[in-house]
Specification:
Elements lengths: L1 E3 L21 H17 L4 E4 L3 H14 L3 E3 L16 H7 L1 H9 L12 H18 L5 E5 L1 H12 L16 E7 L2 E9 L8
Parallel strand pairs: 1-4, 2-3, 2-4
Antiparallel strand pairs: 1-5, 5-6
Length: about 200
């Protein structure tokens, strides 16, 4: 099971966050709590793995506590490092680097961020995390709490789609995606489910 962390500063208006450390906002805390309840009600996870970033650790902690299972950091559940673009708004980058920004929006698989990394590197790391989970937790339900770019890359891999299709997938904060790994490969059972976020506390 794949979950994006809850809402953080820089989502609205959108900034290039990546490797920056952010705490969940009040909205993000509520999203994490609702997601934790949703997962505990329908599934029986054996463990929760999170990215090393605080926003993922905190989201994962709520999920783990609701399901009474351990939570551990898995370093390969990583987000893009935007390098020199980090903490800049999309409008700022569009004005300062128009050609480069246009390439990011049209050909994301051909971009390496100045001083940062590429989607290929993110994809390699998150798919290796999936390999580790498949080998370590065969026949168990596992929750992975990651980031927008990492989760999109992992879903593209699961769907057999190229990284050029990056913008064809959305990852809402605390959206739930469910993957089934079996001998035939990977089946995507649900993607970016968010109905649980509309509930009233």
């Amino acid at each position: 099971m794949l979950v994006r962390h809850g809402h953080v500063p820089g989502i609205e208006p959108e900034r290039f966050r990546g490797s920056e450390g952010f705490d969940l906002t009040e909205r993000g805390l509520k999203e994490a709590q609702r997601t934790a309840r949703r997962i505990a009600q329908q599934w029986r996870p054996a463990i929760v793995y999170t990215s090393p970033r605080r926003r993922c650790i905190d989201t994962g902690r709520y999920i783990a506590e609701a399901s009474a299972v351990p939570a551990k950091v898995l370093a390969d559940l990583y987000d893009l490092d935007y390098g020199a673009w980090t903490d800049k708004t999309h409008e700022e980058i569009c004005q300062a680097y128009p050609a480069e920004y246009r390439r990011w929006r049209q050909q994301p698989h051909l971009v390496r961020f100045p001083g940062g990394i590429s989607l290929q590197e993110v994809s390699m790391r998150v798919t290796d995390a999936l390999r580790y989970v498949a080998e370590t937790h065969a026949d168990q339900t596992v929750v992975l709490v990651g980031h927008d770019s990492g989760n999109r890359s992992l879903l593209l891999h699961a769907l057999g789609l190229p990284l050029s299709a990056y913008w064809n997938i959305t990852q809402t904060p605390c959206g739930i995606s469910e993957l089934l790994l079996n001998e035939s490969g990977i089946v995507v059972l649900r993607m970016n489910e968010t109905a649980h976020l509309e509930s009233e506390d």
